[in-house]
Amino acid sequence: MNEVLPRELAEEFRRCFKLAAEATEPVIHEYVLPYDDQTRHYEARMVRHNGDKILTIVRDVTRRKEAEQALQRNQTLLKMIMDNCFSMIFLKDLQGWYIYINLKFAEFAHRSVNELIGKTDFEIFPHAQAAVFHSNDLKVLEAGVPLEFEEAAVHDDGSHIGVVCKFPLFDVEGKIYAIGGIVTDIPERKRAEGALRESEQLFRNMADHAPVMIWVSNPVGEATYVNKQWTDFTGTTFEQGLGVGWLDSAHPNDRPMVSPSASKPRMC
Fold it and tell me: Among 186, 203, 227, which residue terminates a domain?
């Protein structure tokens, strides 16, 4: 055997032969050998045969090994992407049990990944919050297509709003077997939108209580806002005063001069 195989590999085979001589099941040994400037992977199966003989079957498993290695590389790459993503990513089975979460999700929940796998939303979040998550999951299962939701969750610094894209995962038979989700936190945008709404409401309150008519128009003369004094004086509604609707409140003889389409005076 030493004349055919490298010394260390020959020793491994002798050890496997001894195991096979005492075993009732085949002994499997995988090894590599160079062949035509390539590294080939082989699998040897050894089983006792006719009393004291050892039957050995060797097959080339290089393609299988290369496929396994490629799969391992892809899984490692995917895990690196998932764990370094700033969004929370998760997978749940049809019963709502978490079957995958990334590190961002675990950090948010202040638990390890292993502690969260196999749990449901009701075991992780307050009941009312979990009920919303579960309800949205059911909508995705019913629709069978990706859906987007805004879901609130309590973080260390307070309540945050997250845009959650939830999507069904299908097996080879086209049946849904899990739900995936990607959560993007948007606290700054929501705070900005809230501040804008408060500012607009403050302006409206001040303008509506001012003792004069106030309106706001864009550069082409279309009204974007009229206050209460304007609508009271003209006898129109807020909606009627927007755009070029305010022209209806002008005297017919004055409309050509104040119309947005009227020619502008030239500056010397």
Answer: 186
